[in-house]
Amino acid sequence: MTVAGDRLTNFPDSECAGQPDGISWQWQSWEGLPYLTCSLLSRWSHGFFTRDFSPRGPIELTEVLEPGAKVYRLQQVHGNAVLKTTQLPPVVAPNPEIAGPSYAEADGLVAERELEALWVCSADCVPVLIADDRTGLVAAVHAGWRGTAAKILPEAIAQLVAQGSQLENLKIAMGPAIAGEVYQVSVEVAAELGATIAPKSAVSPTADGILEFLHQLPETPVLADPEPGKVRLDVRLCNALQLQQLGIDLSQVAIAPLCTYSDSARFFSYRRDRLKKVQWSGIVSACRTSPF
């Protein structure tokens, strides 16, 4: 797929399994550089940025989305901790005369006020941007397989609900990440994620029992791999199934039809290159809507 100007590409739903009807992904352009947006989040300034923007960070990228918004980011640690913006200071431009800033360790951020830009970075893990259609508040989550196994996305949803969100008002977009077709993991890792989805009362707690349950799902997150003891794992679909268990309808969830591992022209991939380079994804909180 090529990029040539703003909003050129609308990805058809068929390019991403489980994509809700009427949801599209569009390429945007800033100074000739491409970044991705989702129609589900059209009300909010947001973007899943490509490797072309490297080495720009959240401060510079916020100027692309919403100049003047306060900027928040984390030191990501592949866990399930989610922080509110009042728990950490906004990011400011570095002072060359003092040591570089330190960031709070967590993998999810939840906004508490309007015009807060939340950022997560990834290079195969799943960047998730969440928005509440009624309150205007947002969250940003970095969900690798470890964070997914620890149910970081349900934790972020729980924090939004604690602030007054209703599940039916949430819009959730999962950006470019490594696709299940190419993500080889051990059977044990797949079972660890599967255990967050499988009903404990009806499924054997063994790895074989959990994988059998996953294979029987109408849309399974586990695919066969020719190497013994290995499978292919769709981490984004695992997160979507966790959301479904919370009572969130899958029409509220969009998954980008792009793979970081396969698209070396657009995305960094740690699994492919073994380099510590990332792309950023961010969203800015909006004003509360008026009640109906």
What are the defining features of this structure?
alpha+beta, 292 residues, 15 strands, disordered N terminus, globular, single chain, 6-stranded mixed β-sheet, 20% helix
Describe it for me?
The chain has helices at residues 58-65, 145-149, 152-162, 187-194, 207-215, 235-246, 270-273, and strands at residues 25-30, 33-38, 46-49, 70-72, 82-84, 108-110, 116-122, 126-132, 138-143, 170-174, 184-186, 222-224, 230-233, 253-255, 279-284. A six-stranded mixed sheet has the order 1-2-3-15-7-4, covered by helices on one side. A six-stranded mixed sheet has the order 5-6-9-8-10-14. The protein contains seven helices and 15 strands. Strand 1 and strand 2 (33-38) form a beta hairpin. Helix content is 20%, strand content 24%. It is of the alpha+beta class and 292 residues long. The longest helix has 12 residues, at 235-246. Helix 4 packs across helix 5 (207-215).
End-to-end span in angstroms? 40 Å
Give the helix/strand class: alpha+beta
Largest sheet: 6 strands, mixed
| Percent helix range | 10-25%
- For the biggest β-sheet, the strand order reads 1-2-3-15-7-4
- The residue-averaged pLDDT reads 90
Radius of gyration: 18 Å
Rough outline = globular
Indicate the topology.
Blueprint: E1 25-30, E2 33-38, E3 46-49, H1 58-65, E4 70-72, E5 82-84, E6 108-110, E7 116-122, E8 126-132, E9 138-143, H2 145-149, H3 152-162, E10 170-174, E11 184-186, H4 187-194, H5 207-215, E12 222-224, E13 230-233, H6 235-246, E14 253-255, H7 270-273, E15 279-284
Parallel strand pairs: 4-7, 5-6, 10-14
Antiparallel strand pairs: 1-2, 2-3, 3-15, 6-9, 7-15, 8-9, 8-10, 11-13, 12-13
